[in-house]
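User: My advisor, Dr. K., asked me to get a structural model of this assembly before our group meeting. I'm new to this, so sorry if the format is off. These are the inputs:
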Amino acid sequence: MNRLRRALVAAIAVGLVKPLAALAAWNKEAFGAKTPAEALRNIGVPNASPSTDVHIEAPQIAENGAVVPIEISSSIPGTTALVVLIEKNPFPLTARFDFKDGALPFVKVNVKMGETSDVRVIAEAAGKHYSASKEIKVTIGGCGG
Amino acid sequence: MAAGPMKMRATLGQGFTDVRVLMNHPMETGQRKDSDGKLVPMHFIQNLTVTVNGKVVVDAQISQAVSRNPVFSFRLKGGAKGDKIEVAWVDNQGESNRTEIAVA
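Assistant: The format is fine. Below is the predicted structure of the whole assembly, which you can bring to the meeting.
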């Protein structure tokens, strides 16, 4: 009986999980990292060289840390991913976008910032990593309440 | 707060398609306290995909540091009127949602 129930549960779980199989798993280690270095190591970016071809459009001063608009893009040919870190947030890794053929390496999104911090964007192209960073000053933090 | 409906707009730009999508989601960080002083548990979107005519073009993993009711803009290469764009998300509590629109 127990075994049957377990088999049933497994079957249902497989049925539910299957439609989502196209999604990359959420990288728990990288997103749970408390330092930028640890987050980068876990998301597969051991070292990145600075590049002026990675672009960050964001306000210099964000009045409200709960909604900071950032626009990130890369003009490096063959960019396949963009990684965003907010260095002084409790969990620095904010997002990783993987671009397949058909998408341009461009994203606009609103993020939360606990305090004034560097925002670092890393572009991945042909297995190499390129980074750029920009300081955004925050007058009211947007993490706690 | 349960997740609400999504809104999406896809328009043709110069050589690219501009996709803007709004998701209704609390994006709780797990650090905010409610009026009784209790921590509100983490509740945030973790995975997000953009699909064009059935093919995944953007596959994203995001954290609780994305603002409440997230708005994303993506750009797709080329594109034509009538292309079917779908955006889907899954959060850390297993909730999910998707929406589909044709390029206008």
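One thing worth pointing out at the meeting: Chain B touches chain A through 36 residues (CB under 8 Å).

User: Perfect, thanks a lot.
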